[in-house]
Write a structure and sequence with these properties.
The chain is built from no helices and two strands. It has 53 residues and is low in regular secondary structure. The mean pLDDT is 81.
């Protein structure tokens, strides 16, 4: 508790291994081009999942 207010952080994780064939991974601009004055664009991306054996 800080200043009489309860502070919380929610962390989401997977509770089981991924079983699909593809996963959504958007394509974004490189981080070295980041700017406070630039629009962030995400293009759809569905790469196949690499299965470790």
């Amino acid at each position: 508790m800080i200043d009489g207010k309860l502070r919380r952080v929610w962390i989401y994780t997977q509770d089981r291994p991924f079983t699909g064939e593809k996963i959504y991974a958007p394509v974004r601009n490189p981080e070295y081009n980041e700017s406070n004055y630039r629009t962030t664009v995400s293009l759809p991306g569905w790469p196949p999942v690499k299965v470790k054996r």
